[in-house]
Design brief:
With 376 residues, this protein is of the alpha+beta class. The chain has four helices and 17 strands. The chain has a domain of 213 residues: Sandwich (Jelly Rolls). The chain is globular, with a radius of gyration of 31 Å.
């Protein structure tokens, strides 16, 4: 929705193979039976015994390996379908992948970050880098998921985190962002946390609404409309790519999670704003808004995607001189190539959980961000 400039994841059915060998029938004459009996008696005195029965066939190495691989694949798929909820408990076996370090890009058109209380859109974190092709090749099966080799666990974790536009599109190294590895309040060297009135004057934005733990930033909105937002001090630039990994709880329809690119210095001739992931009263949907005019009947381009926002997803936007493209989990969901619709000033990331009261009781809600990454 339109926001005016800042008011703020065998048994081998072991078939029992019957002894295929026919029972040996003695073809010796009857007179030899006595000799045979005497021979067997002699053997028993030496401690020899007959061989074991051959009723059940042993599992072949090839069959065993096939079942082990199937078990391993099934375990990986199961874990991938249930990515760890990092906000509730740390997962030692699935650490975030290291992000290539690089100096912050030149700020060029960058201005001061949005002032606390300004209505700047929030930035959202992206998913860990997807594994290279073949990363899940079957390996020797582990006794349990807990004792699986570290390499195998890392492959499962990366797969469970979903696809990234950065990986699919080959965006290269991360040049700025936040992995939220510092517990406590948001990193003040990277973020300006809002303090003041909420969106459109509704409720309050409080620094205390934010917390960082277990590699995840969480912003909470209470039943009275006290919530939070913050704007990035990094990557205040014209053009680039941003990707954020985000999820919500089963939120109240009055609380809208938003990942935004907002004009530097809070000003733009055409009221530019890029909401590359915004929730609404429809909690089963996420929207993309490109605002390119300050009013009139045609002031924005939009797109909507039905999605379960309580699961981790990677939301991204690519801004080039040729246009603006939006992605969810690496898949393109929005595009606008009209030159007249592009922002004319530098932009920066904001992360917000905005309150839109409708007169009914509000249920406390949360938005969580795993990481925010910026590419050249």
């Amino acid at each position: 929705m339109f926001k005016k400039p800042p008011f703020n994841k065998s048994t081998l059915n072991k078939s029992t193979f019957k002894d295929a060998r026919p029972k040996a029938r003695s073809t010796a004459p009857q007179l030899n039976k006595v000799a045979i009996a005497l021979s067997l008696g002699a053997l028993s005195l030496t401690g020899c015994s007959a061989g074991p029965a051959t009723g059940a066939a042993a599992v072949s190495p090839a069959t065993g390996a096939a079942h082990s691989a199937a078990d391993s694949t099934s375990s990986a798929a199961t874990q991938a379908a249930h990515p760890a909820a990092k906000a509730t408990a740390p997962v030692a076996a699935a650490p975030k992948p290291a992000v290539p370090s690089a100096p912050k890009p030149a700020t060029g058109t960058a201005g001061a970050p949005a002032a606390p209380g300004a209505d700047a859109p929030p930035a959202r974190a992206a998913a860990p880098v997807a594994p290279a092709a073949g990363a899940q090749a079957a390996a020797a099966p582990a006794p349990t998921a807990v004792t699986a080799p570290v390499a195998a666990q890392a492959a499962v974790a990366a797969t469970g985190d979903g696809s990234q536009a950065a990986t699919a599109r080959g965006w290269g190294a991360v040049v700025a962002g936040d992995e939220f590895s510092k517990a406590g309040a948001p990193d003040s060297t990277k973020w300006s946390v809002f303090k003041g009135s909420g969106h459109a004057g509704n409720g309050v934005r409080s620094p205390q609404a934010w917390s960082v733990a277990n590699g995840v930033a969480t912003v909470s909105g209470d039943s009275a409309g006290t919530t939070g937002g913050m704007s990035a001090k990094f990557a205040q630039q014209k053009y680039g790519k941003w990707e954020t990994r985000m999820r919500t709880n089963a939120r109240d329809p009055e609380y809208h999670p938003v990942l935004i690119l907002w004009p530097n210095n809070n000003t733009s001739p055409n009221c530019a704003e890029i909401d590359y992931a915004e929730g609404s009263t429809n909690t089963a949907q996420i929207k993309f808004f490109l605002h390119y005019a300050c009013g009139g009947s045609n002031f924005q381009t939009t797109a909507a995607k039905t999605i379960d926002t309580t699961q981790w997803h990677n939301y991204a936007v690519e801004w080039t001189p040729a246009g603006i493209t939006g992605y969810i989990d690496g898949v393109k969901t929005f595009s606008d190539t009209n030159p007249a619709h592009l922002p004319s000033v530098g932009m920066h990331q904001t992360l917000q959980l905005d309150w839109f009261p409708d007169g009914s009781a509000t249920k406390p809600s949360q938005m969580q961000v795993d990481w925010v990454r910026v590419y050249k």
